[in-house]
What does this fold into?
Amino acid sequence: MSKAILVKGGRVIDPASGHDAVADVIVVGGKFAGVGQFSERDVHKQFSHVIEVQTLDAGNLVVAPGLVDMRAHMGEPGHDSEESIAHGAEVAMRGGFTTVACLPDTEPALDNVAAALFVKRQSEKAGFAEVHPICALTKNREGKELTEIGQLIEAGAVAFGDEQRATDEPGGLLRGMRYAAMFDRVVIEYAQDPGLASGAMNAGYEATLAGLPGIPSVSEELAIARACMFAREAGCHYHAALLSTRNAVRAVKRAQKLGVSVTSEVCAHHLAFTDDVVRRAYDTHYKVFPPFRRSEDIGWLKRGLRENVISCITSGHRPVPPQEKELEFGRAPFGAVGLETTLGATITHIVNTAELSLSAALAKLTVNPARVLRLHDRKGAIADGLDGDLCIFDPAHEWAVTPEALSSHSKNSPFIGTKLQGRAKFVVTRGRVFDLA
It folds into this structure.
């Protein structure tokens, strides 16, 4: 005997199928079981084993697949005071995310079966958003000895990468890509050359005025060009993380035209802020990596989204303790929390500005990242038999981003003091309804 959830009267948007209409959605035993017009009586009649139907009124709300994020830094293991897996999963859920991929730059690194199983176990114990490990491509992320990719996949790894260290040892990246290609798994790497990326903000006029060392945009283009050549050589799917510049978008587009298996992403906050804001505010909440660039670069990022050169929008969630963000700008760590602001930032800066339709924007947050992570057989769409994960949100709800409005332990968000439009009201996941009010 099982329980059913009946979501009534919402605007159901499923980018994977193209569905966009007012309808009802049935979830039975944690799996999707129908989209259409249903009453509770219909559910009992169609599913004789259902003993209870929980009805949720979604009138005037959008009902979308649970959001999927592929770029969240969880402090655990090593820095669980910043954000444990359990708390990060709850924060993600409050932002409408039901699936999150966490990065391997922990201490110790996520480079072995025990570490991957630990992430999965902590996620299951928490019972909120599912957290899946992106495991290190090489042991201790040193670019030398490859990890046991096959065993890590069995333990739950959804992708591989050395997170900001890949170009330190390019030979390790190439070998890792060849190995990952054997298992049809994506290699995700930071689009930055570390030899050029040691500054504090975007290189150029604003950095000169601020008296801060700059990070040139060529750092990004160079890293992407090399990784794309390696991916072509290895026959590997390469995912370029954290695009922020015009030439990075153009480099990915060129590689795609040449037939290289490359996808890319942009963080929501990189669509909202420019380097002149960093200089004027001189506030470490605006210190993110890669740095905020120029308005021309944002224009190219939006163009990349429109042309599907950039297929995913991510949170880039990186909690930083307040005492560390209070250091002087040059010494403060990079990073911004993003799981709770990504949906609102996407609607505010992409949908409301007519860059993308709501359905097209949601594709960047649902089915596309699910495909990159090879989770599309369970996640990212509303289809019978898939996990019954839903993000139910009000696209017109305007809210002020304040420290109190964020549930993450850290409040390091560049959106603090601004208003965003669009916020999750309910999440359905693991066969349960979570009221986020």
Observations:
- The chain has 14 helices and 18 strands.
- The longest helix spans residues 218-234.
- The chain has a mean pLDDT of 96.
- The longest strand covers residues 2-14.
